[in-house]
């Protein structure tokens, strides 16, 4: 399998998973914000709204807050009080979002186990 074949296969796989988990209904910036929060959560790093604003470059504060609100209303994330700072909120993935990330991770692991993701 050539590198281009692999890239196209991964893109197709991602599109199928996004469609099956309804991630495809989100715009690109909302998906990137969700990915940012998910990756940080997987690393055990807590995420605040200000982290999304300062570290992603995905828009102005009003735009980011709008996207976060949309993600929360759609059931992808929830905000919980920060126990260390009563003024701040932490952003966490909902079970729905965790399930989508688990599907993607499982498929990438499967490709990796088959040696298809090896550098070529």
Brief sketch in words of this structure:
Helix 1 packs antiparallel against helix 5, helix 2 (28-42) crosses helix 4 (61-73) and helix 3 packs across helix 4 (61-73). The chain has a single domain, classed as Arc Repressor Mutant, subunit A, CATH 1.10.10.10.
Structural description of this entry:
- A three-stranded antiparallel sheet has the order 1-3-2.
- By secondary structure, the protein is of the alpha+beta class.
- It has helices spanning about 5-20, 30-40, 50-55, 60-75, 95-115, and strands at about 45-50, 75-80, 85-95.
- The chain has a single domain (about 5-115), classed as Orthogonal Bundle (Arc Repressor Mutant, subunit A), CATH 1.10.10.
- It is elongated, with a radius of gyration of 16 Å.
User: Mind summarizing the main beta sheet?
Assistant: 3 strands, antiparallel
CATH homologous superfamily identity: Winged helix-like DNA-binding domain superfamily/Winged helix DNA-binding domain
Mean pLDDT: 85
Strand order of the largest sheet: 1-3-2
Low-pLDDT runs: none
Radius of gyration (CA) equals: 16 Å
Instruction: List the total number of helices.
Output: 5
What would CATH call the architecture?
Answer: Orthogonal Bundle
What is the CATH T-level topology? Answer: Arc Repressor Mutant, subunit A
As for the number of domains, it is: 1
Total beta-strand segments: 3
């Amino acid at each position: 399998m050539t590198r281009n074949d692999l890239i196209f296969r991964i893109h197709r796989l991602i599109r199928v998973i996004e469609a099956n988990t309804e991630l495809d209904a989100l715009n690109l910036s909302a998906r990137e914000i969700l990915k940012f929060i998910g990756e940080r959560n997987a690393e055990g790093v807590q995420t605040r709204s200000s982290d999304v604003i300062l570290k992603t470059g995905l828009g102005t504060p009003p735009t980011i807050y709008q996207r976060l609100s949309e993600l929360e209303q759609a059931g992808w994330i929830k905000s919980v009080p920060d126990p260390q700072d009563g003024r701040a909120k932490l952003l966490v993935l909902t079970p729905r979002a965790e399930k989508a990330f688990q599907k993607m991770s499982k498929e990438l692991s499967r490709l990796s186990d088959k040696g298809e993701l090896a550098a070529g």
